[in-house]
Amino acid sequence: MKWDRGYLLVVAMKYIIAMIRPEKLDAVKRELQKVEVNRLTVSSVSGYGAQKGQLEIYRAMEFEADLLEKIKIEIAVNDEFLYPTIEAIKSGAKGSEGHIGSGKIFVLPLEDVIRIRTDESGPVAI
């Protein structure tokens, strides 16, 4: 939210967090570029969901790897880009067929964004 001349304005922005398989990152980036979403942050993370890990063998010993490597994508968008961004992530992460562990997308409200260089804030700062 932002104050302008004493009035409270509702700023329509969202913060999207997506967890995907590492091998799907390039496909997701291609799909995002198609919908003109070119700003994102990518991190390598570990976790598990429905897959509950997997059995691995290391030096002839079996052990359960319960944390799987994932990619976390974070994107701030104005509301008009919300659904195209979600569809692009789904399309790239799912591929031709979805599997357990294809990922999740979380959408959160975003109160404000400030571009440090220009001191712009709100939707124009995205």
Automatic annotation (TrEMBL):
<dbReference type="InterPro" id="IPR002187">
    <property type="entry name" value="N-reg_PII"/>
</dbReference>
<dbReference type="GO" id="GO:0005829">
    <property type="term" value="C:cytosol"/>
</dbReference>
<dbReference type="Pfam" id="PF00543">
    <property type="entry name" value="P-II"/>
</dbReference>
<dbReference type="GO" id="GO:0005524">
    <property type="term" value="F:ATP binding"/>
</dbReference>
<protein>
    <submittedName>
        <fullName>Nitrogen regulatory protein P-II</fullName>
    </submittedName>
</protein>
<dbReference type="GO" id="GO:0030234">
    <property type="term" value="F:enzyme regulator activity"/>
</dbReference>
<dbReference type="InterPro" id="IPR011322">
    <property type="entry name" value="N-reg_PII-like_a/b"/>
</dbReference>
<dbReference type="GO" id="GO:0006808">
    <property type="term" value="P:regulation of nitrogen utilization"/>
</dbReference>
<dbReference type="InterPro" id="IPR015867">
    <property type="entry name" value="N-reg_PII/ATP_PRibTrfase_C"/>
</dbReference>
